[in-house]
Design goal:
The complex is a heterodimer.
Chain A: H1 3-28, H2 43-51, E1 58-61, H3 66-72, H4 76-83, E2 107-110, H5 117-131, E3 137-142, H6 149-160, E4 165-171, E5 174-175, E6 178-179, H7 180-183, H8 190-194, E7 200-204, H9 208-223, E8 229-234, H10 252-260, H11 263-271, H12 278-284, H13 288-299, H14 304-327, H15 333-340
Parallel strand pairs in A: 1-2, 1-3, 3-4, 4-8, 7-8
Antiparallel strand pairs in A: 5-6
Helix pairs in contact in A: 1-2, 1-3, 1-11, 1-14, 2-3, 2-9, 4-14, 5-6, 11-13
Chain B: E1 2-6, H1 7-21, E2 25-29, H2 45-49, E3 54-56, H3 61-73, E4 77-81, H4 85-88, H5 92-99, H6 102-105, E5 115-120, H7 135-139, E6 145-147, H8 152-164, E7 169-174, E8 181-185, E9 197-200, E10 206-209, H9 211-226, E11 232-235, E12 238-240, H10 244-254, E13 257-264, H11 269-280, E14 290-294, H12 303-308, H13 313-323
Parallel strand pairs in B: 2-3, 2-4, 4-5, 5-7, 6-7, 10-11, 10-13, 13-14
Antiparallel strand pairs in B: 1-8, 6-12, 9-11
The chains are: A alpha/beta, B alpha/beta.
Chain lengths: 350, 324
Amino acid sequence: MERDILKAMLKDMLLARAFEERAAYEYTQGNISGFLHLYPGEEAVAVGVLHASEPGDYVVSTYREHVHALVRGVPPGKIMAELFGRKDGCSGGMGGSMHLFDQQRRFMGGYGIVGETYPVSTGIAYAIAMRNLPEAVICFFGDGAVNQGTFHESLNMAALWNLPVLFICENNRYQIGTEIHRHSKVTEVYKRACGYKIPAEQVNGMDVIEVYKATQSALLRIREGTGPQFLEIETYRFRGHSMADPGSYRPKVEVQAFKDEDPVTVMLQDSIPEYPDAEKISAVGRDNIEHLSNHMHRENLINPQEIQNMKEQVKEIVEQAVQYAAASPEPSMDDAWSALNCNRGQEVLI
Amino acid sequence: MTDEVLLWQALNKAMDIEMAADNSVFTMGEDVGLYGGSYRVTEGLYAKYGEWRVRDTPISEGGFTGLGVGAAMVGMRPVIEIMTINFALLALDAIINMATKIPFMSGGQFPMPLVIRVPGGVAKQLAAQHSQRLEHTLMNVPGLRIAVPSTPQDAWWQLRQAIQSNEPVIILEHELLYFSKGPLDTALEALPMHRAAVRRAGSALTLISYSRTAVLAQQAADKLAEDGIDIEVIDLRSLSPIDWQTCIDSVSKTHHLLIVEEDCGFAGAGAELAATLSERCFYELDAPVQRHTGLDLPTPYNGTLEAASIPTVSSIINAVKQIV
């Protein structure tokens, strides 16, 4: 893989982590309210998938979508301002954390009702197919969303009409507090896609390179006209479901095991010359650390100073985002009415 | 040029002219294509425009209504047909949580030129699961327009206006009106989509109704006139927004108000009309606002009971006579 892509992905993962941790802090300071669902642990999914996509592709995401928006290129200040509920937020302060939108960047929303990303995606894909365009729709959802009726309805229609949708299941093994074995009979989510004849595979979501490559080939198949594709990306969120959730239902050992293969650390560890030894790798249970370490070491891709510089850049970006948000005014009630009536035509109403 | 047409034919013509004019218009629903639509509204369109623009769907109301939302976000003009309003309950998430919320929650970034056509109302002994009227639920959703055409002319105008509009519009079509005949002048300039129509001028009382009961109300008014009771009949044509001014002007003239609707009375459309017009016309009213509505009862299958559960011409006449 090209060094520039790897570096760009590493930077986005660092930015994602720093942005989310800062959001958590701002929440404790009372600058952000409501539901705040954070992404640490899952960065390799958004970063790998979106770096492999084209700017013309559409992105439809869930309520845990800050990082999808960030990686898609929505300015960090616009996102932070939205979390703050300010006028300069990417949704004008009307959406908040769960409802980030950016039409210009084809970021088609964060949706707060589980299972809504499928029909939005098939709808956009239907329009693309009707117009014979080379674009695709990237549809994110969690493991908890696959038992919603729209999942099955939409997979069936996408397959039936050969729609250009890339279904991305971010399988973090929990629907809020219910572990996957307690919410699904079939826990290998990708197998469900087979029922609709949609090509599907399981991907290690702690390895951004694997995610990138799987996405790249899935999108290629879509553009070749193969129809919808499905990736189940196995990942883990380090925090609770939202800021209101301490996550106490999860065994400590499980959380620690996943933190040991933190996708950010994995990338970083490799770039510093101290690699985890074989014993540590086998203790984690998977070998993606070794895999990525060997790869980056062999390719001599980055040095510690570059990482340090990146971390400082990221810190500065996040700081500026917070300042931008804090300086932005509150939206007015007139702004709310304008948002509601944004599509009203000439007709004068009474 | 005025023709006498059936209401479904007016809708069919409206679909055809809009699909011919704009290739971003497409329609989708159960049996709308090859079969031609349960009430023939899409007849002939599949052959003319092909399967991408006239799409037969699986039985997945939530899935394909939501698909319409996604397509509308990128500038398509989907016309989603849900076979009956009762099935629309399975699509309420797409209608309420998606279609009306996305333009708002995004701070006004997205168009939502989505039309949802739904047959409904009490027809002929279809029993409780196929006879509902859900206007009260839909009226409580900010950002959703509701058109309730009762004539072929209105059906023609309002469907075309809905397709051309960038706002989400739901069209409630009464199943017993599809085969009712009326004049259609395709050259006539359209009323605004939400404008109420005074179907009959009168002085004794204002009767406000919509959809099929507005038709029954006009028949009742004609009979009352034979007894020397001269009432004004307003057909709302739109339940959201409501043309309050037309209602207020009429009440200010007649000083009596009766609201007639087929839907259940409790917390129904008539409750909103009664509340708002009581507030806004308090000093004009000589008597309390009255409502004559469907019973708060699931519709019975039995034909006699079914007929007794909703307003009829004779029950409307009685309701008027109790006031004036």
